[in-house]
Amino acid sequence: MKPANPKLIRSFFLKTWPIYALSLFFHFVSNWINVNVPKVLGKFTDQLQQGSLTHDSVISYSLLLLAIGIGQVLFNGGATYLVMYIGRKFEYHLRQRLFSHFTQMSERFYSNNGVGRLLSYFMNDVTAVRESISMGFNATANAAMLLTAAVTMMITSGIPLYLIAASVFPLLLIPFIVVYLGPVIRRRSLAVQESLGRMTELAEEQFGGVRVTKKFAAEDIMERRFNASVDEISRNQLRLVRVSSLFQALIPYLGTIALITALAFGGYLLIHGPITLGNFVALTLYVRMLMNPLQQIGNVINSIQRSRASLERLNGLLGQQSEIVEADDAQTVNLAAAELRIRDLTFAYNPGSQPVLQHIRLTLKPGQTLGIVGRTGSGKTTLMKLLLRMYDPPAGCIKFGNTDIRDLTLESLRSQIAYVPQDGFLFSTTIRENIAFHNREAKLCKVKTAAKQAQIYDNIAELPGSFNTRLGERGLTLSGGQRQRTSLARGLIKNAPLLILDDSVSAVDTVTEKEIIASIRRERADKTTIIIAHRISALKHADVILVLDEGAIVQKGTHEQLLREPGLYAELYAIQEEGLHHATGTSYS
Ligand SMILES: Nc1ncnc2c1ncn2[C@@H]1O[C@H](COP(=O)(O)OP(=O)(O)OP(=O)(O)O)[C@@H](O)[C@H]1O
Q1: Pocket around ligand 1: residues whose beta carbon is below 6 Å from it?
Q2: Which of 10, 321, 387, 487 shows the greatest Cβ crowding within 10 Å of its Cβ?
Q3: For the whole model, what pTM was predicted?
């Protein structure tokens, strides 16, 4: 079995060991204070038996026990506070580190890991590890110190060594049980965490898709799918519970055996003389005192095994590197002056799978407008993802000027491109912040101008808080078309050298589309723009139009050129024009 990778924990311990050391010291003091209780009671018993107990000595015994109690509470409380504090710090840093790792991961990582699955790392795994490094540490330190202190006190109280050895021996079997059952618990915990991750993923998907579910009255199907995943968790949890219960029961059982040994053997020695009644009372109290921490140790070892499973998952996740790596000598290029050159670009999402783009060739001069049209699934968005280097294109196929896209810094590339997808995601913050996403400091007048260009200004102005309206609050959402235009405004305000509209006006009516396109042509006359659209009206003004079909360029030219040749473009245009004439009631000629 592969050992858990301790990187995360090690680096944390290296930074925080002084606090752990202080907590250990507090545990040490607290337990040394605590183990005096049986000794004091033993002495009390002996004095009682000898008839030498006075009123004064009863009061001093009581005061001593009170002092012991207060000291124990103070030091134990301090030790517990320190490790709990550190556990929360760990949780905080780990969540930050996970988030920063996630932000660096590539699009493929997100395609392979659903949102719910990623959330389960944040919630379940981080919590499991935190519990074991705080509560786990606490209980282990407590039990280990108590055991050492108790054995030492027994020896110094005059209890014969062979009696102590016989009474404590059953407890020494605990490590063997841990070695035997520990890996089983860890394996089963891993299965539980994996199934919890799948359930969170499914729940996230189902809540996200609840509107579709309701419209199709498919609640039953969804419920069955969800129940199956809950069933899986419950099966895995029961498998875990079976072995961890056995484990948890075995540890106190050994404690009981130790107590029986102390009673039987100690009682025998008491009757036959070698030990006093005080020794006997102290011995049984010490063994009894050890049972509680041992019970806790059972829980802790269980939780440590579970957290090792989570730690393996977290270290595995943090060990994954983004496939998009910046070259050591990555350069910056001014996209406003660099020609885009695509040469014989063939791309498949996965090795060995069918290429999604085939032999794409294209040159786009700065300031030109490129239109791309094609059937759904023909590879238009994929081409744009490659331009943003969301996926790595083959070396040498995409260049800006003379520089391969793979040799550019990601910051220089992506900061100079404004990409507006079809389903622009809006954050649950104000509309102003959503539009000024790339630069939260942008002046309101700029935000308003972008909103006007995207033809969304009037809609926003009518909202109760205008541009300061918070989306998602009290259920406030925008319609599909309004969302699309807000996301378009977010792209336009960036005023980037390269603007990519990926089917970004599909949800607006033709009149609004016309106004948006006219304003983009006006504002971006000297800047490069790529417009992907299903409606030819959105891109017919482009300097060059590509027609993609099954990943290949099947036609290329201006609107007029493409209309003159038979092909997909002319067919699409005829169909769309016919639809328009039907809609407006004019006859198509
Ligand atoms: N992450 C991915 N992994 C594997 N295949 C993918 C991935 N994304 C897209 N594809 C596949 O690549 C092909 C092209 O998809 P793409 O999104 O580029 O098409 P499109 O022309 O933009 O379509 P649409 O007009 O519907 O937006 C499709 O067959 C799609 O199934």
Answers
A1: 111, 349, 356, 374, 376-382, 503
A2: 487
A3: 0.72
